[in-house]
Amino acid sequence: MNLAIIGADNSRIKTEGLNGSKHMMKIKGEYLAERIIRIGRTNGIIKVFYIINSHEPELKKYLSTNNFGLHLNLIELDNVSPLNGLIGLTSFLKIEPFFLVNANSVFLESEFSEFVTYSLLQKDVDGILAITRNIDSEKPLCVAMNDEDVILKFSDSKEGYNWATGGIYYFSPSISDETKYALQAGILRLEKFLQLLIARGYILKGFTFSKIIKVENADDINKAENMISEEKTLEI
Asked: Which of 71, 98, 138, 158 could form a Cys-Cys staple with 2, CB 3.0–4.6 A?
């Protein structure tokens, strides 16, 4: 199985007075980058495609000089958004299904394992999106679904929506056929690309997580650590 990790904007972190790459922030003593790769490996991932940008030398050095126990490919791509990150990975991920995770998404390990198992069992589905009722991001991508968890539409407004995506995805390689069309059509946002997939007959489903925290500012670090501590307490 393959895992793609896309970058996150550092601007909010800088305004909070924190230095360095968001990928190199620590949650419970573990870098965000390290945590996602470790959880992926634990769940059967054998190859990781990690998008970095050219002005994060600390991140590049860390990823290129450490052994994570799997095959790690670094791809330099500046001005990364979820969509252009996905498009930049198309040539690498057009043969097999793959998981895609935003670098700043913090989630419970047990729920990610359930997500992997669920995704691999789905047939005739082009994508699975992690969703949560805990809409804590300033710019959520909200979803509406039917009774079978098939996603009907997306919205960047919380008004009238109970669910939002959490930056964790599973995609069939079939969606790579649409990335070229998206570029030609001038589609720049992931929301619009996902809407395009639905309009063109692709099937996307939602999978529920209890909570996903997108690390956007310093306070989110505390929220993420508290969530992980609660999970470990339940395991004891």
From this structure: 98
Distance between CA atoms of 186 and 28, rounded to whole angstroms?
Answer: 40
Answer whether 197's CB lies under 8 Å from 150's CB: no
d(CA 102, CA 122): 22
Task: Report the C-alpha gap between 166 and 182 in whole angstroms.
Answer: 22
Report in angstroms the alpha-carbon separations of 131 from 128, 151, 154: 9, 11, 12
β-sheet bridge partners, residue 73: 49
CA 144 to chain centre: 19
pLDDT tens track for 91-133: 777 788 899 998 889 999 999 999 999 999 998 899 999 999 8
Token pair in block for residue 155: 């919205």
Judge whether 44 and 116 are in contact, CB under 8 Å: yes
Q: What is the CA radius of gyration of the chain?
A: 17
In tens, the pLDDT along 161-182 reads 889 999 899 999 888 888 878 8
> Coil, strand, or helix at residue 83?
helix
Q: What are phi and psi of 96, to 5 degrees?
A: -120, 155
Alpha-carbon dihedral angle through residues 63, 58, 54, 15, given to the nearest 10 degrees: 120
**CA 140, CA 232: separation in Å to the nearest integer?**
27
